[in-house]
């Protein structure tokens, strides 16, 4: 299968082609590594908010501590919809462990209270 | 001990406050909102601080790193500055009422506000459901409100792209992102991770030509634009949506600056500054997005620190060389380089007018070329940086920064 993608390793933004594990049109080696990861196991850091009680802001910004498979973003959102955090909370506090069975924790991004 | 008053506690003001205190000043930090951090609080996505901390922090985390360092600084939040004039700052808040403080230096760090629907003049109705991208971001990320179910985004700047992803993750459908120019002004990374990841179409060289809806937005009419950026008749099509987000540029908030009689650069709509961030009014400094619209917060913090250090030490006046944008360059900051200064090298910040794959940045003193640097990839979406020696600048009459495309 032939896939085309824009490289985000540097500002040049090469239009890279990947076909049967063969990378072409990449400007550099780093582009090849990026392209192969994107077509085999693309991952993203998820940032969102969860409910917060006992403090002035009603939402607490959170993020996955590491990147998780791109395909799990929406399941992770659904799982986080059930999470409520009570203030006080510190940056780095774990608000959800092992999101979607990835072994990755979701942590608070802001101090509240 | 010098007294320094800082207006605004976003990334620029926070960095300025810490730098001024570290340089021995007594600092008063005034912030209009109830909380410190400015726009960073609502920018919950990551990617902040790559240069400064070698980490990809979220906005609140980046702000938190600076807020942690705010000891021995007098802070007043929920405080609106009404006027600045010759070292005096008049402000109001619910606790102190109206008050005036006098200080040795004032630092302007008010940031930007968004261009609105009125500023770009889209014809049609004015129903509910039309938001600036930043206002929508605040409703969603701070106030936890759902703003709509099916959105169109006008403008492909980074805030618009980030909101496309945010709304999609929160269960809304983003029908399209529409961009007037033939290229996006957003970072490639955001095009990929905010649009491509969710199969959101990007219509380049298109614009919204009509807003349709009685009480709530029902649809927008989109049309292709020609090279003159005017809609091409007959290309109109309709996209049903209940939400239109505008990501069509930022305006530096310089009402206080203008009222104080400080010179404004027509290219940036921000104050004219020296390389130490002093404005044309002695003792008044400026930093961050009130001076120029940055794409990376790391450089906002750097500018804040430069302003903070200079305000704390009170640089002497002296001769300077003017810097101006030439062919292919939209603006240059700083607009003035002092002949005497703490650093031997001054960095010029500017944006090119159009994308260029291979070219050079060339600086002229009148007709004479004094500096030439090759660049592989330039785009208006990314701020260019060009270091220049103070010695070279101080021997020049006027410096003109230009961009030349290789043919």
Comma- or semicolon-separated keywords:
heterodimer; A: 113 residues; alpha+beta; CPE0013-like fold; 2 domains; 5-stranded mixed beta sheet; 3-stranded antiparallel beta sheet; 2 helices; 10 strands; B: 407 residues; alpha/beta; FAD/NAD(P)-binding domain; Immunoglobulin-like; 3 domains; 5-stranded parallel beta sheet; 30 strands
Write structural notes for this entry.
The complex is a heterodimer of chains A (113) and B (407). Chain A is of the alpha+beta class and 113 residues long. Chain A has two domains: 2-40, no CATH class; 44-108, CPE0013-like (CPE0013-like fold, Roll). Chain A is 19% helix and 35% strand. Chain A has helices at residues 29-40, 73-81; strands at 2-6, 15-19, 22-24, 43-44, 47-53, 59-64, 68-69, 84-86, 94-96, 106-108. Chain A has a five-stranded mixed β-sheet. Chain A has a three-stranded antiparallel β-sheet with strand order 1-2-3, covered by helices on one side. A two-stranded antiparallel ribbon of chain A has the order 4-7. The longest helix of chain A has 12 residues, at 29-40. The radius of gyration of chain A is 18 Å and the shape is elongated. Chain A starts with a strand and ends in a 5-residue tail after the last strand. In chain A, 32% of the residues are buried. By secondary structure, chain B is an alpha/beta fold. Chain B has three domains: 1-113 and 251-316, FAD/NAD(P)-binding domain (3-Layer(bba) Sandwich), CATH 3.50.50.60; 116-248, 3-Layer(bba) Sandwich (FAD/NAD(P)-binding domain); 318-407, Sandwich (Immunoglobulin-like), CATH 2.60.40. In chain B, 20% of the residues lie in helices and 35% in strands. Chain B contains nine helices and 30 strands. In chain B, the strands form nine sheets. In chain B, strands 5-2-1-9-22 form a five-stranded parallel β-sheet, covered by helices on one side. In chain B, strands 11-18-12-13-14 form a five-stranded parallel β-sheet. In chain B, strands 25-23-30-27-28 form a five-stranded mixed β-sheet. In chain B, strand 27 and strand 28 form a beta hairpin.
């Amino acid at each position: 299968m032939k896939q085309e993608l824009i490289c985000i390793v540097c500002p040049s933004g090469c239009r890279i082609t990947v076909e049967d594990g063969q990378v072409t049109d990449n400007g550099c080696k780093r582009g090849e590594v990026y392209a192969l990861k994107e077509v085999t196991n693309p991952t993203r850091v998820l940032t969102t908010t969860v409910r917060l009680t006992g403090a002035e802001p009603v939402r607490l910004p959170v993020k996955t501590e590491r990147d998780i498979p791109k395909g799990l973003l929406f399941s992770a959102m659904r799982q986080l919809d059930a999470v409520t955090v009570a203030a006080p909370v510190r940056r780095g506090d774990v608000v959800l462990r092992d999101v979607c069975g990835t072994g990755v924790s979701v942590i608070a991004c802001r101090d509240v209270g | 001990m010098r007294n320094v008053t800082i207006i605004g506690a976003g990334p620029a003001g926070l960095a300025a406050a810490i730098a001024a205190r570290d340089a021995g000043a007594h600092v008063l930090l005034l912030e209009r909102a109830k909380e410190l951090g400015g726009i960073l609080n609502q920018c919950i996505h990551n990617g902040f601080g790559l240069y400064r901390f070698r980490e990809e922090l979220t906005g609140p985390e980046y702000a938190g790193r600076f807020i942690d360092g705010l000891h021995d600084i007098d802070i007043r939040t929920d405080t609106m500055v009404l006027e600045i004039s010759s070292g005096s700052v008049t402000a109001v808040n619910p606790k102190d009422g109206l008050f005036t403080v006098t200080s040795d230096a004032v630092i302007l760090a008010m940031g930007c506000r968004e261009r609105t629907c009125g500023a770009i003049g889209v014809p049609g109705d004015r129903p509910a459901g039309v938001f600036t991208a930043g206002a929508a971001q605040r409703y969603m990320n701070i106030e936890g409100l759902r703003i709509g179910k099916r959105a169109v985004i006008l403008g492909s700047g980074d805030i618009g792209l980030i909101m496309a992803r945010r709304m999609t993750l929160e269960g809304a459908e983003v029908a399209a992102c529409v961009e007037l120019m033939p290229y996006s002004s957003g970072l490639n990374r955001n095009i990929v991770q905010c649009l491509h990841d969710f199969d959101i179409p990007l219509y380049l060289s298109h614009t919204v030509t009509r807003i349709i809806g009685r009480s709530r937005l029902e649809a927008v009419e989109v049309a292709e634009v020609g090279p003159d950026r005017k809609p091409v008749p007959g290309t109109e099509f309709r996209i049903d949506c209940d939400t239109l987000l505008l990501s069509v540029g930022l305006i530096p908030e310089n009402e206080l600056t203008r009222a104080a009689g400080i010179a404004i650069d027509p290219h940036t709509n921000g104050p004219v500054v020296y390389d130490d961030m002093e404005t044309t009014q002695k003792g008044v400094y400026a930093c961050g997005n009130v001076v120029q619209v940055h794409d990376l917060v790391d450089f906002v913090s750097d500018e804040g620190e430069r302003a903070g250090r200079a305000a704390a030490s009170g640089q002497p006046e002296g001769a300077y060389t003017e810097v101006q944008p030439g062919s292919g360059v939209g603006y240059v900051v700083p607009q003035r380089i002092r002949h005497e200064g703490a650093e031997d090298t001054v960095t010029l910040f500017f944006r090119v007018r159009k994308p260029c794959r291979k070219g050079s940045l060339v600086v002229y003193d009148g007709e004479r070329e004094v500096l030439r640097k090759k660049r592989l990839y330039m785009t208006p979406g990314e701020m260019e940086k060009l270091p220049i020696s103070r010695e070279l600048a101080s021997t020049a009459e006027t410096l003109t920064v230009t961009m030349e495309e290789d043919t």
